[in-house]
Amino acid sequence: MARAQKSRLFTLLLLLFLVCALLTVLAGPGHSYPPRQAVIYTNPVQPTEESVKTGEDIFLNYCAGCHGSRADGRGEQALNLSPKPQNLRNAPFVSYLSDHRIYTSIAGGVRGTSMPAFDLLIAAEKRWHVINYIRSLTADDRLNIPNSIARQQVAEDLKNPVPPAEESIASGRKLYMNYCANCHGPDADGAGVIAVNLSPVPRNLVVISSWGENPFIDYFSDARMYDSITNGVPGTSMLPWIGVFSDRQRWDIINYLRTQAGKRIEKIDFPVE
Ligand code: HEC
Ligand code: HEC
Q1: Angle between helices 49-62 and 124-139 (to 10 degrees)
Q2: Ligand 2: distance of its center to the CA of 205 in Å?
Q3: Helix, strand, or coil here: 178?
């Protein structure tokens, strides 16, 4: 090949290369993000004693400042954080979290909270050791520390100190309709809109049952009503309302409900085949 021919070929190749490079740049990155959640992480590390011990060391180093050295959510920094670090000894909460969920929360943090991402600090395998440690904390029921909500001791013979005046009943009705009716129903017959998803179902508080039984509220003392509204019924969806309502407001609701007792008799719609 002649010299001139060679250099023309070289120029041509160079041009071709530049065009390719330009096209690559123009096509640009960012069009092919992997779909979110493409990978489901499962724990490849056996929860041996050694793994749990390694996990505990990592936990004490990186996590205890917030989650506490007992992992109960009461670390030194917890006081200043909102939302609070989770109590990782609360068995129902921890067993609700899949391995994948805990893994991604450790690696990526929990956006919008102070829970930081540890992907650069804690290598992948070590994250599984921490997870084995966390799971070991609730493996035995005796190690479970449920979340505690303040409880108010209610004396069995507590009497309603608020007279059932019109004003109290009106206030109770308003609170009931706003906060209780979704579950217990606007008529307090237990048939609220979300009752279908609850087990046990919300109680029929005031309606005479189809078999003529007096309403629930007629049988129960002020103390029992007040206790259930204040502290909830553990293990059911009946929530505690302590801290939500003042003492006075809780009695207003009871005054209102007592005015509704027996006003209606339950109708039963027999299913038609
Ligand atoms: C700076 C404080 C802080 C540190 C350090 C910290 N966490 Fe957290 N963590 C939080 C907070 C706050 C939440 C609660 C977020 C929420 O309300 O959903 C949380 C939530 C969690 C959860 C529940 C995540 C979920 O998916 O709901 C797990 C598990 C957890 N942390 C584990 C750890 C582990 C393991 C470490 C150490 C490697 C750690 N955390 C370090 C503050 C912290
Ligand atoms: C998320 C649903 C839900 C909400 C909201 C709710 N309740 Fe309940 N409630 C229940 C369920 C479920 C039960 C039945 C528990 C059981 O079977 O013992 C119940 C039971 C009760 C009982 C009877 C408890 C006992 O001593 O046996 C009272 C009284 C009561 N609720 C009042 C209220 C009042 C007042 C409100 C509003 C301030 C309210 N509830 C809000 C679900 C709810």
Answers
A1: 100
A2: 9
A3: helix
The residue whose CA has the least distance to atom 12 of ligand 2 is: 202
Rounded to the nearest whole angstrom, what is the distance from the C-alpha of residue 240 to the centroid of ligand 1?
26
Residues in CB range of 31: below 8 A, 6 or more apart: none
pLDDT in tens, 102-156: 999 999 999 999 999 999 999 999 999 999 999 999 988 777 887 877 889 999 9
Measured CA to CA, the distance from residue 251 to residue 159 in angstroms comes to 10
**pTM, 2 dp:** 0.70
Cβ of 113 closer than 6 Å to ligand 1, yes or no, is yes
Q: Tell me if 133 CB under 6 Å of ligand 1.
A: no
d(CA 39, CA 31): 19
Contacts of 256 (CB under 8 A, 6+ apart): 168, 169, 170, 171, 172, 173, 175, 176
Please, what is the Cα angle at 185 between 179 and 186, to 5 degrees? 80
Domains of the chain, start order: 49-143 (1.10.760.10), 166-260 (1.10.760.10)
**Residue ranges, the chain, pLDDT below 50:** 30
